[in-house]
Amino acid sequence: MNKPIKAKDLAQLLGLSPSTVSMVINNKPGISDSTRKLVLDKMVELSSISPAYGYKPQAIDFIYFVIFKKHGKVVGDTPFFSQLIEGIEQSCKSNGYNLQIAYFNEGSDLSTSLPLIHSKECKGLLLLATEMSLADASAFASLGCPTVLLDSAFNEIALDTIVINNKQAAGCATKELIKNGHTNIGYLHSAFHINNFSERKDGYHRELRRNGLSIPAEHEYKLTPTVDGAYSEMKEILNHAPEMPTAFFADNDIIALSAMRALKEKGYKIPEDISIIGIDDIPMCELTDPPLTTMHVPKHQMGVQAVKRLLEKINRNSREVLTIEIFTFLVERQSIRNLNV
């Protein structure tokens, strides 16, 4: 047997964290079967594991789930993505597949980040495309394995996609403000571009025009879509004492909740002075004061549908290219004031 490889060197080789590799080596719980297999198989390949360890490589079919990060301002450790991943994991397990999660940063090498993509055990690829550009998605399309994109669509490439109906979500959110008598509706827009937010902007504008309302450019504020970023930037905006609209539509709940915190600290009452509505329905919406009215995105179901579609491509050799839009629905809480009464 060769000299055992260090955990940190093996982690770098496989694109995993050193703690994950260490947990596998020490046979600790909390590691998926596919990740455990990846580490142990590589150790066998490098002759760094003793036969006495009792491990024999076994062929286990798995699905890759690639989490792509361009800037990491949208894709992160948030309730939205944790619920999405939960749906994927449960659906893979119920269908007899292991799930191999890989994190891929812009500019990373495909062969290094996805070492088993061309192995016979890898049956397909789920790709979180939230922060992707067309060029990013095209690189994965060239891999030639069954692939389904999540959370962003590109008409120029023939890949199946599961996406949120963003225009419907933004339109319904804006319509709810209008229904409650608001005609001066501002927009808390992400400072970082992703397709979802562009489509939500279109939905917001369309609903304003449909109701004969002007688009108040002076009340459109671009905020970093993170808790700290949106909060600090909204505080800075409020320091200049701008005239406020009666309501805001926000690209997502994180921006809405962070801006709401800044507004309250500045002395504004929610919803008495300013009403706010978001999109996603993350758990924190129920815990704030007041609870946030928002559009619910069935995140768990998005994951389930993505696996279902991928398995259709794997098992039936389906050649159709589908885009499946997930409908959202309003969750009324207490962050919107009714100006009609």
Automatic annotation (TrEMBL):
Gene3D superfamilies attached to this UniProt entry: 3.40.50.2300, lambda repressor-like DNA-binding domains (1.10.260.40)
Pfam families: LacI, Peripla_BP_3
Domain HTH lacI-type: 5-46
Listed GO MF terms: DNA-binding transcription factor activity; transcription cis-regulatory region binding
Keyword Hydrolase applies: no
Signal peptide (residue range): none
Transmembrane segments: none
InterPro entries: HTH_LacI, LacI/GalR-like_sensor, Lambda_DNA-bd_dom_sf, Peripla_BP_I
CDD domains: HTH_LacI
Alphabetized UniProt keyword annotations: DNA-binding, Transcription, Transcription regulation
Protein name, UniProt field: Sugar-binding domain protein
Organism: [Clostridium] asparagiforme DSM 15981
